[in-house]
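Researcher: Good morning. I'm working through a list of sequences from a screen, and I'd like to move beyond sequence-only analysis. For each chain I'm collecting a predicted structure so we can compare shapes side by side. This is the next one on the list. No need for commentary yet; just the structure.
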Amino acid sequence: MPSDLVAVVLVALFGAASTRTMGQVVTPLWQAVLAVGISWGATWCLRHRHPDHLEMALPEGLIIAGLTWVIWTALHYLTDLAVTGVLVAVSWSLMTGTFLIVFLAGWRWLYGYVRAHDSLTPRPVARRLAEQEQGGVEHHGARRVPGE
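Model: Good morning. Structure tokens for this chain:
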């Protein structure tokens, strides 16, 4: 999903900026893209029998965010642990996990809110609106005179 790619790129950029390693941002970028790609595949395999899609917040969004964090952290440990040390790697992992939850799960909750908002019209109001559209009922701003 394009929004997930944008989210992990932002997380990689924020992480590189916060650790002052913008010159080495290529490594976290490929790690992030690989991690989210594997997460999509694994989540689709786990949830493909359900009618929901990968844009749903629960459980798909949390599965993608969690798997991306685990895979990305493992890749980070494998490639950067000798350079940074354990304490810095743990700090990086916590920061990255927080950003991933905010970005990967956050857009899904906003998307869910927008979808739910479309279906929040009470049935009597929806029925009245449908009748107005079908019957060509007079404009609701026009005044009716009693006895007409």
